Amino acid sequence: MKVKLLSRNPDDYVRETKLDIQRVPRNYDPSLHPFEVSREYTRALNATKLERVFAKPFLASLDGHRDGVNCLAKHTTNLSTLLSGSCDGEVKVWNLTKRECVRTLQAHEGFVRGMVVRHCGTSFFTVGDDKTIKQWKIEAPAYGEEEEPLNTILGKTVFTGLDHHRKEGVFATCGQQVDVWDEQRSSPIRSFTWGVDSFSAVRFNPVETELLASCASDRSIVLYDMREPAPLKKVIMTMRSNTVCWNPMEAYYFTCSNEDYNLYTYDMRHLDKPITVHMDHVSAVLDLDYSPTGKEFVSASFDKTIRIFPKDGGHSRLV
Amino acid sequence: MAKVSKKKVSRKSVRRSTTVTEKLAEVKPDVVYDDGDDEFLSKEDGNISSEEEEEDGGGKDERKRQKLLEAISALGGKRQKKLGERSEAAVLMSEFTVNAEGEGDKIDISDLIGSMEKTSAVPAKTKKQLKNLQHTNKTIECPLSKQESERIQRDVAFRKASTEVTRWKDIIKQNQRAEQLVFPLDKEPAGPRPMERMVTGWKAQTPLEQEIFALLSANKQPINDPILTPAEEASMRAMSLEEAKIRRAELQKARALQSYYEAKTRRERKIKSKKYHKVQNKAKRKEFLKKFEEMVKTDPAAALEELSKIELARMQERMSLKHQNSGKWAKSKVIMAKYDEGARKAMQQQLEVNKELTQKLVTVLNKEEEEEEEEEAVDEEVLPDFVNDAEQGLHSSNPWMRGKLSEGPAEKELSENMDLITEGPGAVENPAEEDEEEETEEETLLREFDSRRKRRQAHEAVTAPVPDQEEEEEPQVPGQGEEEEPQVPDQEEEELSEFTSLFRGIADSSREAEMPEGAADSCHTNPSAQLEEGLVRVRTLEEMELLSQQEPAPAEPAPATEQLPSVTPQAGTTRKRKRGIELKEVLTKETKVIKVPLAPTMEDTEDSEDKLDQRGLIKEAFAGDDVVSDFLKDKRKQEEAAKPQVVDLTLPGWGEWGGTNLKPSRNKRRRFRIKTAPPPPRRDQCLPSIIMSEKRNGSISLHQVNSLPFPFQNHAQFESTIRAPLGRTWNTEQTVRKINKPKVVTQLGAIIEPMSREELMKDKKQVSTGSTSHVDSWKRKR
């Protein structure tokens, strides 16, 4: 009697490591798959639904401030460090991975208005309602040492915001005028005014590092060049912009968050009309920041929402 | 005390000299002299007790005297109040007791120039400039206001900044189009790093090692194992492999081309055929002349040079005995010429060649000279051709003959261009041509008229036979089909115009109807009634006039035939039926053939050709087709298509007997025929002149694109991309991976720095290697 055996080469169906995907022999001839469109549609739909179901955008809350948090700052060289300044003048340094407060310091009397970490990541600057600019070390003082700022500059007026140059020891503050400071000096090396307004935010361009943008209370956004004695250009909008942020990957685009519930992306070369209008918020937009890839940005609004917008999309992304 | 008083005077003058600055040059020598005198006197006079005392006393006296003088002067007539001036002592008196000369004066350019002319070191140019400056009395414009200047500053600065920023454009575009971006951008290349980069601190320690290293470094050999020698590195840097390959290929190609060319020329040189060379030479000459002509236009200087060369060649030719029939060959031919025709011809040719070569070259450049010569030369004028042609043109009945008139000058001009180069026997023609140029304007006008006339007559020629035929045939066979056919378009035209007027009426009426009522269903209820109204209202006298204007031809001529009555009753019926007119019936009714004599229409149209307006043109253009009825048919067809079909699900043989000739029972058919519910009324139901497609689905259109996305060229491409499946089940693993590549890849835990300026440098290198397939990238984005 002859017995016929089915024999297979295990190389054809056994994967080499368990990290490999299971080999499934398939015939990809499209004529054998008449319902591919509908099947794929169903799959895509299910995938989207599940993604929504399992989306967990909220990771953790960092508790500890005794008053409202007024400003945040990312650490430039350490991804797990975050700084927050509150309305009672307290600054806290957080470790994001452990989700705990590393250090607390009383930086100012009154609000901490602005905060920025120096490009080297060893120190950070704060401005407060007490008309001072203070520079602090990131590291906590050793045991027995007193918590003291490295440097304090007394200003004439209240500062409302600040930003640091990406490469040099230069930073900019805004208040009644936009000042550019050298770290080594106690008086500004440049101060820009254009009419009498107060400014709410100032930002350095991270790519073309000599350029600045600021939001003024007369509903305008003003551009500056650090090297020039006068401001460059001004756009006046229908309502006031709260903050402005440059795209870190595309040198001439910046976005501003406006009181009219929208965000506007501008090309700084052609300011006569915005490139994109980002709509979805239902109240004034307070702040925004770009993702480091420059593809998206996040905005926070008075309507208690945070939205993520693609840089060239008119509406926010669903999470 | 005469001496004393003198002294006083002198002192006074001294004081004056210090205070009064003007005319100082004149005063000073006196003073010096006085002083000298004074001293001399004081020495001489021993009686005077002491100088100082006296001086003091003198000073007091002086002051008193001054006061007195002032008081006196104040008494007399005018009161001159001196303005108290305060001046700085330091300025007035320099510390070296040298008075600042010309203090308080303005410095004029003239002062400077005065000294300048004396000094020879100053270049003449500056002197001139300064002189010019002196003469110009231009005032400098007043500076701009602060705001203005600031604005200008801002503008300049902004422009500068924006140009600076624009450098990033390429990179930004490239990144936007990239299929995949990997962040952080400046990632260090993976893989093993070279040893020498890792171990930088290593040093030779033992004496042996040191010796070896010393040797190596002395011979410029690599110290660490894998690196190249400096020479090798230099060579590597000098040229990359690819570049070298490209260059080599280029060189090879050039060499090959050169060798081909050489071979070709060698081959050509070896050709012995005289004829070949003759032809070749001739062609070359022609080409050269052509080039030369161009050169005359573009580069006259070079052309002149060429001209001189040609002249030289001509001289040489004239001086030499070439082509003069004086050579050995020529002599032999002379002997042969008596008997041989060929030899004679050859000699003739030779002479011609000579003539040709020794001809003077005439170009635009030396035309003026030539013209002078010509004036002398002109005796016999060759009349232009068209003069002869004019006689032929008198045969106005023949259009072809007239055609020549227009062609003549054109030819002439061509020949003129040809003749321009060589001044041969045809040189005499030139003045005639000039005359002709003057005449050409008149000619062109003439020609235009002529051509018009011709066209018209051609028309007549075509149309003329038609009426003849008609008139001949009409009495014979009034109702023949062949005859009717050419007339059909006219009738259709008429009907078309009727339809158009009807349409207008409908449109007006519906507008009027909807405006007061504003309800859509009104037109559902009784459209016909409204239509009637509209028709009655619109088809007034004016409308009729319009119609008659459009169709003057059939109405006017109408020779008494049987056809006329058939027209009028037709018109009458339409007019009568206007009351109970059914819109669709009217519009879609079969076109009835009406015979209208065609005879004189053409004449009329010719006369009114100028008046032919837009409408008439359109009517003519679309005379053949019945647009309106076509449209309505089309609409009806679409309506039919949109109606839901009855689905017949009857299967023969189920529950019954089956067979070839058996039909399923009626009962069964009724049961299995599924009638779907009637669709909602069409939106264009009461709009007779509109077709509204119902195919568009609003719910789907939300997911459809309005315009073709960027990289796609046509919609088929786009649809095929969209239709292709993405999943693993239908694609191979690699394809899936390729299709579903993420647009952005970030590395976990890496800090993504903002774009740095180094990227600009990198980009310049990579510009050439920027070929990406956009279709794939688009899909991924999706």
Automatic annotation (TrEMBL), chain A:
Domain of life: Eukaryota
InterPro entries, A to Z: WD40/YVTN_repeat-like_dom_sf, WD40_repeat_CS, WD40_repeat_dom_sf, WD40_rpt, WD_repeat_DCAF13/WDSOF1
Any one of the GO CC terms: small-subunit processome
Pfam families: WD40
Repeat listed as a keyword: yes
GO biological process, one term: maturation of SSU-rRNA from tricistronic rRNA transcript (SSU-rRNA, 5.8S rRNA, LSU-rRNA)
SMART domains: WD40 (SM00320)
WD repeats mapped onto the chain: 62-104, 278-309
Keywords of this entry: Repeat, WD repeat
Protein's name according to its UniProt entry: DDB1- and CUL4-associated factor 13
Gene it is expressed from: dcaf13
From TrEMBL, chain B:
Subcellular location: Nucleus, Nucleolus
Keywords (A to Z) from UniProt: Nucleus, Phosphoprotein
Domain of life: Eukaryota
Pfam families in alphabetical order: Utp14
Family, as annotated: Belongs to the UTP14 family.
PANTHER family: U3 SMALL NUCLEOLAR RNA-ASSOCIATED PROTEIN 14, U3 SMALL NUCLEOLAR RNA-ASSOCIATED PROTEIN 14 HOMOLOG A
Protein name: U3 small nucleolar RNA-associated protein 14 homolog A
Organism expressing this protein natively: Notothenia coriiceps (black rockcod)
